[in-house]
Amino acid sequence: MTPLPPWARGPFELLVHAEEHLRAGDDFDRRIALIGFDNAIEITIAAYLSLKPIQRRNRSYLAEDINKWMANYHTKLEFLAYEISTRKAIWVVDRTHILWCHDSRNEQYHGGYRGVPEKRDLDIVRRAAIWIFGFLFDVEDAEVRLARAIAERLPPPAPERNPTYDTAIDGAYETINVGGQTYSTSEILYSLDYEAYRELGIELSQAELS
Description:
This protein folds into 2 domains: 6-153; 163-209, no CATH class. It has a two-stranded antiparallel sheet. It has helices at residues 6-24, 27-49, 63-69, 73-86, 95-109, 119-136, 142-153, 163-172, 185-192, 194-209, and strands spanning 176-178, 181-183. The protein is built from 10 helices and 2 strands. 26% of the residues are buried. The chain is an all-alpha fold. The radius of gyration is 26 Å and the shape is elongated. The two termini are 51 Å apart. Helix 1 runs antiparallel to helix 2 (27-49), helix 2 runs parallel beside helix 6 and helix 5 (95-109) crosses helix 6 (119-136).
């Protein structure tokens, strides 16, 4: 997978940030995800219009048109409509649906509305943000890149418990009572400090063999 060009990295990070909140899934995160994906749409278009022609495959626009398109969210979508027409492409996500999500975002951000965004709206704005990013920056695998970026940020999975270590540790130490619940020493140690669990397990299991 070829690296993203440097001018696409900022908009892509907005997608990653929004996706992280979407996957977190609670009410607050869903609100932030809606705002994040909507911001990503606007920033992606603005970033693209700010490039030199050589950075956008020699596509050129009149300065007065760029100034007009950069005015606000709605004019940025007017540019997107122009670009879709010029490239003989299609609207992957309906323009009216994108505007609906933008209005919902404004309610979250400016209107003081505290309702939780519906999954349907989140799906729309997410799909639109990823499509627009990929379309403008000519990134065909934007969805794959996003999934990979999220996976790379996840913590590594915890090592599995070792039955040999468990047997050795529990044979040397008594069970532990916490809040009326009984736990084995190996279980407590594994949960609190894996390296200590591993080192003690190796030490005790090797002692049994000697």
